[in-house]
């Protein structure tokens, strides 16, 4: 039985669902409130810098199956680049110590036996922290699993902050453990760092929109859904878009793929609906250089460096742009951005200068600061319990988004998985075959 699938939200969760469903028996329409699709994973032209930048930095891994399936479906699998080896350069600003974590390609972690390839100062006994994370119960926080030592301070704690966007003393150990199981535990072949060759939109958004257009799906930007109408105990009957009302038949399906606060507002009257209600910020600072730095060593291979002991978490080298990510940024909510920017620039210089053929300018270059106050749900055990599944009590209403119960933190991989799960639920509801996995 054919029907119309209405997808509310054009972020990666919504686009993932649309890509899985387009070209099948159902008509597909995506409604995006903003002027462009992509959500937190898109590129745009910044007028101040007069160049194109990503609205955030996302470090992907070669072992992200949903990401590569999605890119394969839209013909963009070759748009991600990265080093040929699972290498991760770091600097500890406390003592200006630099190293490159160089993982073994196979499952056997031979890297821990080499002082040249592992975290400086780590003890082999500290590896029990990784086992503790993988065995963590839902109520445990990351700090419960981390033994004192260099491995925790210089790798596992920063890794937790970046992955969870939540501090280790409150972040869910089980969610971090799920990531460890899919990355480090599977060996370096699954840990090759990957990022877009050009930009997030060029990899994840533009090819998807072109693919959907060819398959006859409709994508409506600037179309904010202001209300979802449904009968008590029955199906969704209409969507309200300002003055426009779209009738929804019982054979149609609605996929709600908007951020958690938006979904909570639209579904406030839905019995039994719940969603995360505490959030963490992410701060991104994009510095525009007069010319692209010439890099050497591990930084030349990776084009990014992890920063320990500072405000910055990661510095990405993107041609003339040096882009900094500060995760779990609620802790800096009361700090003035004009005060933070010079401090971050000094950290960038400390991280980049020793690996560049020429030093960076002492004077801070032009910059753009992007602070997303509710970038992700706070990945605490309590908030993780609030994440809903794909299905709702309404028979033709499904949910998608990195805030739903994907089993992962709020990541691109999780967002894409949630969209694919919603698409599978549509096929199950209609009794139609989905795309082969």
Element layout with pairings:
Elements: E1 4-8, H1 12-21, E2 27-32, E3 43-46, E4 51-54, E5 60-61, H2 65-73, E6 80-81, E7 87-92, E8 97-102, H3 128-134, H4 150-164, H5 173-182, E9 193-196, H6 200-214, E10 218-221, E11 227-230, E12 236-241, E13 244-247, E14 253-256, H7 260-266, E15 279-288, H8 297-302, E16 304-308, E17 314-318, E18 321-326, H9 337-352, E19 367-377, H10 381-385, E20 397-399, H11 412-430
Helix pairs in contact: 1-6, 1-11, 2-11, 3-5
Give a description of the structure.
- The chain has 437 residues and is of the alpha/beta class.
- The chain has helices spanning 12-21, 65-73, 128-134, 150-164, 173-182, 200-214, 260-266, 297-302, 337-352, 381-385, 412-430, and strands spanning 4-8, 27-32, 43-46, 51-54, 60-61, 80-81, 87-92, 97-102, 193-196, 218-221, 227-230, 236-241, 244-247, 253-256, 279-288, 304-308, 314-318, 321-326, 367-377, 397-399.
- A 7-stranded mixed beta sheet has the order 8-7-16-17-18-15-19, sandwiched between helices.
- Helix 1 packs parallel to helix 6, helix 1 packs parallel to helix 11 (412-430) and helix 2 crosses helix 11 (412-430).
- It starts with a strand and ends in a 7-residue tail after the last helix.
- Pfam families: Amino_oxidase (PF01593).
């Amino acid at each position: 039985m054919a029907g119309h699938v209405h997808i509310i939200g054009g972020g990666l969760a919504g686009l993932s669902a649309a890509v899985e469903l387009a070209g099948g028996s159902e008509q597909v329409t995506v409604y995006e409130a903003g002027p462009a699709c992509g959500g937190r994973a898109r590129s745009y032209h910044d007028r101040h810098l007069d160049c194109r930048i990503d609205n955030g930095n996302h470090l992907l891994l070669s072992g992200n199956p949903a990401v590569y399936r999605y890119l394969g479906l839209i013909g963009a699998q070759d748009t991600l680049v990265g080093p040929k080896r699972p290498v991760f350069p770091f600097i500890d600003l406390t003592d200006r110590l630099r190293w490159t974590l160089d993982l073994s390609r196979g499952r056997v972690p031979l890297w821990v036996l080499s002082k040249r390839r592992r975290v400086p100062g780590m003890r082999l006994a500290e590896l029990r922290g990784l086992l503790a994370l993988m065995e963590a119960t839902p109520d445990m926080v990351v700090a419960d699993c981390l033994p004192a030592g260099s491995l925790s301070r210089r790798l596992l704690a920063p890794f937790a902050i970046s992955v969870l966007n939540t501090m280790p003393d409150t972040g869910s150990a089980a969610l971090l453990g799920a990531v460890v199981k899919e990355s480090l535990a599977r060996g370096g072949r699954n840990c090759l760092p990957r990022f877009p060759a050009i930009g997030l939109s060029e990899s994840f958004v533009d090819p998807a929109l072109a693919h959907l257009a060819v398959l006859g799906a409709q994508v409506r930007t600037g179309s904010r859904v202001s209300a979802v109408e449904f009968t008590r105990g029955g199906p969704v009957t209409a969507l309200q878009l300002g003055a426009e009302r779209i009738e929804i038949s019982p054979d149609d399906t609605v996929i709600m793929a908007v951020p958690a606060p938006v979904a909570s507002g639209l579904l406030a009257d839905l019995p039994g609906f719940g969603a995360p209600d505490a959030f963490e910020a992410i701060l991104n600072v994009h510095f525009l250089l007069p010319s692209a730095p010439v890099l050497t060593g591990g930084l030349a291979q990776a084009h990014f460096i992890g920063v320990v002991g500072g405000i910055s978490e990661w510095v990405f080298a993107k041609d003339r742009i040096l882009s900094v990510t500060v995760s779990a940024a609620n802790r800096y909510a009361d700090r003035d951005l004009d005060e933070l920017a010079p401090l971050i620039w000094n950290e960038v210089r400390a991280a980049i200068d020793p690996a560049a053929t020429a030093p960076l300018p002492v004077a801070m270059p032009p910059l753009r600061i992007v602070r997303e106050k509710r970038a992700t749900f706070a990945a605490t055990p309590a908030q993780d319990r609030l994440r809903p599944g794909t299905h709702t009590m309404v028979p033709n209403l499904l949910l998608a988004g990195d805030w739903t119960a994907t089993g992962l933190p709020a990541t691109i991989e999780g967002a894409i998985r949630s969209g694919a799960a919603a698409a599978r639920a549509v096929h199950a509801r209609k009794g139609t075959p989905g795309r082969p996995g």
